[in-house]
Specification:
- By secondary structure, this protein is an alpha/beta fold.
- It has three domains: about 60 residues, no CATH class; about 170 residues, Rossmann fold, CATH 3.40.50; about 90 residues, Rossmann fold (3-Layer(aba) Sandwich).
- It is about 35% helix and about 10% strand.
- Strands 1-2-10-7-8-9 form a six-stranded mixed sheet, with helices on both faces.
- Helix 4 crosses helix 8 and helix 10 crosses helix 11.
- Bound molecules: pyridoxal-5'-phosphate (PLP).
- Pyridoxal-5'-phosphate binds next to strand 7.
Length: about 375
Amino acid sequence: MAWACQVGPRSPISRARSPAGATPPTASPGSTPPTAARCSRATTFELAGRTLTRATLAQRRAGGPWRWAELLPVADPARRSHLGAALGAPRLAVKEEALNPTGSFKARGMAVAVSRAIELGAPSLVAPSAGNAGGALAACGAAGGVPVTVVMPSDVPVVNRGEALAAGARVLLLDGLIDACGAVARRIAAEEGAFDLSTMREPYRVEGKTTMGLELAEDLGWRLPDVIVYPVGGGTGMDGRRPGGGLRADRAGVQARGVRGGAVGGRGDARGRPGRAIRGGDRLVLEAVRASGGAAVAASEEALTEAQLLAARLLGSYVAPESGAALAAVRALRERGDLDGGEEVVVFDCGIGQKYPPPAGLAAAERVAG
Ligand SMILES: Cc1ncc(COP(=O)(O)O)c(C=O)c1O
């Protein structure tokens, strides 16, 4: 049970049991839990003054409002989420990446890669992107004062295009898939001397993404969970061979994005083995997954949409379709017996759902008279 005026450290991982995104701090041993009603302003500030020290706050590096639990008029913020149970993994936790600037984990890789490119004297930057990477690159390049070109498939979500344009990037649209955009990016790199930040074409994006693994370990008290489920596109976040550990868990389930393109080998076969369209970067991903004792899983568009909606309704978070795919992979891993339901599973929610067109088949909003 939790109460409003608790003290102590808390995990910044968004626990599946907390729909608002985090578990509130736990009481210090032997303390009497003050009820919300008993916490007047004076006593909350008094308590905060005693408990919100540099040390305790340093332990609460994330968690949104619950980081300030002493000051909130809430008796029991820990309403349980049934998402883990619904997916067959009751010990499920979700690592939120949507809080990064530009709303996805892509900002981690791009921040490091762009900074390094600038250090190396790059006059301009270029990358192909089917979505979030382009926005993150545009934002990081703008912050660093370097011109950015993003090459995108013409059907890319309008938000991704808009955020890149808003940051002042040159956006080139191509009727084709991400591979074709990559070819254009390489041409621009050759012709204009732009630093090519395409997936797996330089080492620094991977380095930036290793901070996800570091942070996860930090969140859990310098250990890793039994299983990490991570949505793979190009795969830089999954390459676990880097210093810092990347995402090496005891076992890692990888979800290939199937229908949305850029996936590891497309849909794969019925046993979850990837299909034939394996490229260089994909092979590195598969090696990393196998080295961890993990597996590659493909999710259909229907399964990922279902899981995305499940998260919206049970987790309290509108996650990206890729994250829906990772959640769908948890269910698939359980169904095929790769999970027995007792494991501590962490799913990476790599981005916000708001950047994408809403899932098909939603109920219509109702019109009312004012
Ligand atoms: C929200 C989200 N999740 C996962 C991925 C896959 O990332 P990566 O290409 O690093 O494997 C992407 C990018 O394609 C993404 O935007």
